Amino acid sequence: MRAPLLAVLLTLGLVSPALASPADEFVARLSGLCGKAFEGKVVASSTPNDPFTGQRLVMHVRECSADEVRIPFHVGENRSRTWVITRTPTGLRLKHDHRHEDGSEDKVTQYGGDTVAPGSVGRQEFPADAFSKEMFRRENLPPGAQENVWAVEVEPGKAFTYELSRPGRLFRAEFDLTKPVDPPPAPWGAK
């Protein structure tokens, strides 16, 4: 069942939550934020002097359809990043769409992975897929990047959290869902 329809049917009590998969309910939670933007902060980082710490972080649930949710992630004035969550036949996929200011793709883009477990209505995990692992090798990214696992958490009315973890590396940014902010400009490369 698709997210917007599922959200309406769940709200009206026409579909039992037991019939919806965790992925369906997770996407419904994301879709409930569509059009809204929220400010956040780094709450955990194993990188000394993490470049995101101290920057204004804003996530904007900008585009929602039955099969895809696009969430630009702005770091200061940098509008190069968009998290893209799409449905797959077996769950969800997270990809990172990185663009240059002129809209062209960065050489390190479209990396991410698919869920391998049902996850929960509040948290979905995305281990690095084969495409990402090969790109990380090719681009000589830090050792261990091939073991990346990204996670997204949504706690309605409280927080949205983005996480990157691997052995020896942890990054978590948390966004306050109680205080919407004005939506930022479109991400680089958006139509």
Automatic annotation (TrEMBL):
Q: Where is the signal peptide?
A: 1-20
Alphabetic keyword roster = Signal
Q: What is this protein called?
A: Secreted protein
Q: What is the lineage of its organism?
A: Bacteria, Pseudomonadati, Pseudomonadota, Alphaproteobacteria, Rhodospirillales
